[in-house]
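Researcher: Excuse me, tokens okay?
***
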Amino acid sequence: MFPYSDPTTTLELHRQKVDQMIREAVDHERARSAAGNRRRRFGRWRGKEERGRGHVAATA
């Protein structure tokens, strides 16, 4: 791989990368809006008995 020491080439590569990231973000947002804006939750759901309690590390 050749190092890009020319600032014009480096700037152009940066602009291409930014354009690609913007396109991917737009595609992602479009897919989320088509899915009905439901957010996915990872992990386990907390039950009713666990919602109000805090976590205690040690007993006194």
Notes: The chain has a mean pLDDT of 77.
